Structures are given as structure tokens and as C-alpha cells.
Task: structure prediction
Amino acid sequence: MAPIVHGLEEQYGDRVDFLYLDIEDAGTRHARERLGFEATPHFFLLSAQGVVLGAWQGVRPRSVLESPLREVSASGRPLSP
Result:
């Protein structure tokens, strides 16, 4: 999954912020609990206000993760919850 995610970050990183939470880092516990992080990998799409707009758990094809990123970047504004 890492090559897919890093490729998406390279493509969309100028328009979308990517944040990585290390499950081994106790400092990320609050964020993981708030998001409902359950397993690795677990992906979340957040609005600029921090509202969870989408979540994907487990290994996913690039197209599943890229579609909402394309929508966000094409609109020029965050998706609505």
C-alpha cells in the first residue's frame, strides 16, 4: 500500500495534505481514537474542519483512494460532509 499512497501524495500533495499516524506511537492515540482507527492500513478523508468524509480499511486499489482525491482537487474546495 505504501507505494500507492506515496504515489497519490506525490500527485495530489500540492492540493491535499497527507498525514500519517504511527500505530506504535503513543502520541497518536488521541487522533486514532477520534477517527475510529481500527486496523492497518486505515485511510481517512477529512474536510478542512476535520470532519471524516470517508474511510477505507484494508488494502484498496489505487482507484478507490484516488477518486475522492480527484474530486476534491477538481472542485478546488473541500468536500461537504
User: Anything to note?
Assistant: DSSP finds three helices and two strands in the chain.
